Amino acid sequence: MKIIRGFKVRGFILAAAFSGSLGFGTHVAAQEELGRSYLIDLNSKMVTDLGTLGGNNSIATGVNDAGQVAGYSDTAGGVIHAFITGPDGMAMRDLGTLGGYSSSASGINGAGQVVGYSDPGTGEGLSHAFITGSDGMDMRDLGDLGGNLSVALGINDAGQVAGWSDTAGGDQHAFITGPNGANMMDLNSLVHLPPGVTLIEAHGLNNAGQVIALATIVPEPEVYALFLAGLGLVGLIAHRRGINKGVF
C-alpha cells in the first residue's frame, strides 16, 4: 500500500493516458502500469495505491462514501479474485470465490456489500452472480433466471442487486433482486415495454429503485416489410440506371 502525498491528480491522469496510448516501454511494463488502481482524494490531493492480491494488476470497479473500494486483482498464483478494501482504500482483502477458481467484483454499497460474479466450482466453466454481507463478508450465490450463467453489476444501499442472467430458454435477460439480494426477478416481467424490446442487462440502480438497463430492439413485422420494400426499390433504381448506361 503506497500513499503519495501532494501528488498532482491532473498530471497523473494525463501521464497515464499518454503512456498507455503511445505504448512506452515493453508491453508487460505498460500492462502493469495501466493495471494498477488508485484511490484519488481531490480534497486532500492524496493518491493511494490500492496494491494487489499478490500479482501485478488490480482493477477497481466501485467505491463507497467511506472509501471502501471493490474490484478484482490477480493473485500470486495468477488467478483473478474479487477484493474489498477498508476505509480510504487501505488493506485490500481477497473475497474468495463461490467454490471455484476465480471471481470478480462489480460494485459496492454504503454498508460494504459487494456484488460481482464467480466461478461456482461446478466444473462447467460458468459464473454465478454473488452478493456479500457488510464489509465484504460471507459471499453468497444469487442464483439465476433458470439458466446456468448470471452476473451482478450494481447494488444500492438496500442491497438490491442489478445484473443479467441466462433464462431456461437460453436467452439473456436483465434482473433485479429484492433487499439483500433476495428473490432474483426478470426485469422484463416488472415493467411495461414497447413491442420488440427486451432488457438484457441491468447495469445499476439507485436508492429510489430506478434502474439503468441495456435492451435489444427487434422491429415489428411492418418495419421489416418496409425495410425489404426499400431494398427492392433501391435495387430496381440501380438496375434501371445500369440499363440506361448500357451496362448489363
Q: How would you summarize this macromolecular structure in one to three sentences?
A:
With 248 residues, the chain is α+β, with helices and mostly antiparallel strands. It has helices at 9-22, 27-34, 221-244, and strands spanning 2-4, 38-41, 46-49, 54-63, 69-75, 80-84, 93-94, 103-108, 114-118, 128-131, 140-143, 146-155, 161-167, 172-176, 185-186, 197-205, 211-217.
CATH architectural type of the largest domain: 6 Propeller
CATH superfamily of the largest domain: TolB, C-terminal domain
CATH fold-level label of the largest domain: Neuraminidase
Q: What coarse outline follows from CA principal-axis ratios?
A: globular
Q: Note the run of SSEs as H and E.
A: EHHEEEEEEEEEEEEEEEEH
- Assembly type of the chains comes to single chain
Placed side by side, the strands forming the largest sheet appear as 4-5-6-7
Largest pleated sheet: 4 strands, antiparallel
**Distinct helical segment count:** 3
User: Mean pLDDT, as a whole number?
Assistant: 81
